[in-house]
Write a structure and sequence with these properties.
two-stranded antiparallel ribbon, four-stranded mixed beta sheet, single chain, 4 helices, alpha+beta
Length: 166
């Protein structure tokens, strides 16, 4: 039977007893092939008297098919489209909710395809066809960039011509 002599004490990364001579592999009761001279891939910690375990590699990610999928709701698509429409300089307002005589802006996701309906207010005087074209291109690009979905239909209703352009 051997006496276990405590080392300098447990360090912040060691458990109690790790600093002892038997545990560090240097005492008479140490197991062969374990200790500072052994090639076990574990280096001794000179400060705490224990051992430092090399960091483990993170587990590899499973294939994309097995990770799951992200579903984007119709409401999120509508909000992204309304926000993108407000980035067009001639657009003064995008109506997320409809007035009693008009429909609200809305969006629908079907698989990887999106259909949108936007009700916008445009500043006066603006070339309406040019604004509609620019709006359609910008919203389509932003939806594709932020969600990866394709916009297959985008209906634009210009409900108001108001507010002067700067």
């Amino acid at each position: 039977m051997t006496d276990i002599v405590p080392g300098p004490g447990p360090g912040p990364d060691t458990a109690p007893g790790i600093g002892s001579s038997a545990a560090s592999g240097t005492g008479p009761g140490a197991a062969p092939g374990v200790g500072p001279g052994a090639d076990s891939g574990v280096a001794p910690d000179p400060v705490a008297g224990g051992v430092v375990v090399p960091s483990q590699r993170p587990a590899p990610l499973p294939s994309p098919e097995r990770r799951g999928r992200t579903e984007i709701s119709d409401r999120v698509i509508t909000k992204i489209a309304c926000s993108a429409a407000m980035e067009v300089p001639e657009v003064r307002d995008v109506r997320l909710r409809g007035l009693p005589w008009s429909r609200a802006s809305s969006g629908a996701v079907h698989g990887g395809q999106v259909s949108l309906r936007l009700n916008v207010s445009v500043g006066y005087p603006s070339p309406l066809r040019a604004v509609a074209t620019r709006l359609r291109e910008h919203v389509t690009r932003r939806i594709a960039a932020q969600t990866g979905l394709d916009v297959t239909r985008l209906d634009i209703t210009m409900t108001d011509l108001g507010g002067d352009l700067p």
